[in-house]
Amino acid sequence: MDDLEQLYQTTYTAVVRFLYRKVWDADRAEDLAQEVFVRALAHRPEKPRAWVFAVAANLARDEARAAIRRKRHLTLMTNDPDQAPAPAMAPDDQVERDERLTAVHDALETLTPRDREVLLLWDAGLSYPEIAAQTGLAVGAVGTTLARARKRLVDAYDRQHSKRDHAAHS
Amino acid sequence: MRHIPDEELHAYLDQALSRAQCVEIESHLAACHACRELRDGIAALRDRTTALLATLAPPRRFPPTLDQLSEEAAARSARRQHIRRAGVWAASLAAAVALGWGANTYFSPPAPMRVASPAHVPAPIAEAPADSGVPNVALRTDDRPAPDPSRSRAATPSATSPASAPPTASSSARRPEPTIIEPPRIEVSTATLPPIGSDGGLGGIWRTVSWASARNERGDSVPHLDGLPVVEVQVGQTQPGGNKSIMVVAQQLKSGQVIRTIEGPAADVSELLANRSGSPSPWPTLEGAGISGGDGAMALRHGDRMLAITAPLSNDSLRAMIRRLNAEMRQK
Fold it and tell me: Domain extents for chain B?
């Protein structure tokens, strides 16, 4: 099987997820992911996996500059009844899921851009050397950054959770 | 005894360490209770992070196949060529308009150019050569005059996937069949068409569509002049269902003049053009579409389809434009 084909089959979903966590729009994330692979097909990069995520990160960065992003972000955060929720889910589950999603999203946003990038790249399946190459960090610094990023994400999430619980009980 | 630092345990659990480093850490863990606890804590933190991030996943959909994306990549390089062609188009259009205007000024009487006098215009629409007796390399064994699938496909190429095309059409696309060879001469004539009788009315429905959905519907065969802004696309349907629709694309020149390119079943297009001359139109929004009697028109027929242009321009301009448009559409 073609290297790129194999990469496509194994990482497409990870690229969509990676982009989604940056642009916060499922459709846009899919569009950009497809754009990434269309470009990969044209360029045939030497190290396709690292290349694909580097291009994805660049596209997401360009996207973030566009003012539209903020509007879409709002759409995601308000539980818009017009945006049909997954039908299998009961309304309560949906609300709970949305709240959780918002909480994780907010927690992720409290991280510094570098910590967030390293964490998302790790979660997308990149190795330490690949993360180092993309972010400009030393390989040895990736573990330190990941250790900090994980702790901050979980702490920020827990803080928000207890704040919300506190608000709900008062 | 040196305890293992946090980040090293992260790297260990992330399988980012060398075999030697792992052995070193594992032997320490076997002997150090505190580090084992730390490791378990980090493993739990790691799992929680993964679980939290997992909630930030878009709904899963079926991704396109890589082949589809390859097509997109190929289409893109074709589009780059297309943009280059658009430049040529714009230049030749400007030349055609200038030429037509010049010819008008010098050779035409100042009176209105085209007076609708249908009785004196016998057969205004040029048939494709195969049907009009012009020598053609096409070898036709049947005696039906117009419909020829390979020809009409060539005139209106579609962007649908090859798999959905009928086998005859796709095989004729691969082999150089004589019937799709460009005719040696294209007959063009002004289309000051005879008005149709009251019984010939079409019960048509017009709808205005976006450029994107027009491209979706027709692919590359949306009639238009590259390089000019599109102001409106209308689709008329005389028979429900099927691909019998007629498409009118309005584009604007810098001067504000509107050029309409029309593609559809020959009978419908000629009827549409005929109704320019002021008789009550059976097409509900024909007047709204702005195709007025004052506009010149040129039409070209290919089998049972017809391509036409209407614009408040001279015949020379229109002739140059429709020739170019025809060549352009057949190339796609």
Answer: 6-55, 75-331
Residues contacting residue B250 through CB under 8 Å, at least 6 positions apart: B230, B231, B232, B233, B234, B258, B259, B260, B289, B290
Both structure tokens of B225? 């002049």
Q: In what order do the strands lie in the sheet with B230-237?
A: B189-190, B296-302, B305-311, B258-265, B246-252, B230-237, B205-209
Per-residue pLDDT tens digits of chain B, which is 332 residues long: 689 999 999 999 999 999 999 999 999 999 999 999 999 999 999 999 999 998 888 877 777 888 888 887 787 777 776 666 666 667 767 776 666 555 544 444 443 333 333 333 333 344 333 333 333 333 333 434 434 434 333 333 333 333 333 333 333 334 333 333 333 333 333 333 233 233 333 445 677 777 777 777 777 778 887 777 788 888 876 665 555 678 888 887 767 777 888 888 877 777 777 766 554 444 433 343 444 445 677 777 777 888 888 887 777 777 777 777 777 776 65
Residue B264: which of B202, B211, B313, B178 has the closest Cα?
Answer: B202
Q: Does B80 lie at the interface with A, CB-CB under 8 angstroms?
A: no
In this predicted model, what pLDDT tens digit does every residue of B265-309 receive, in sequence order? 877 777 777 766 554 444 433 343 444 445 677 777 777 888 888
CATH architecture of A91-170: Orthogonal Bundle (1.10)
Distance CA B23, CA B156 (A): 70
The one-character DSSP state at B156 is S
| Mutation target among A146, A152, A160, A161 for the B interface, most CBs of B within 10 A | A146
B161 touches chain A (CB under 8 A): no
Q: Which residues of A touch B76 (CB under 8 A)?
A: 38, 42
Q: Which residues contact B38 (CB under 8 A, 6 or more apart)?
A: B3, B4, B6, B9
Taking the mean position of all CA atoms in its chain, how far away is CA B266?
20
- Using left for φ > 0, alpha for ψ between -120 and 50, and beta otherwise, residue A137 falls in beta
Contact assignment for A34 to B70 by CB distance below 8 Å: no
Residue B37: partners with Cβ closer than 8 Å, 6 or more residues away: none
The H or E element that residue B172 is part of is helix B167-174
Sequence-ordered list of residues with C-beta below 8 angstroms from that of A143, at least 6 positions apart, any chain: A128, B7, B8, B10, B11, B14, B16
Domain-by-domain residue ranges, chain A?
A: 1-78, 91-170
Distance CA A137, CA A128 (A): 10
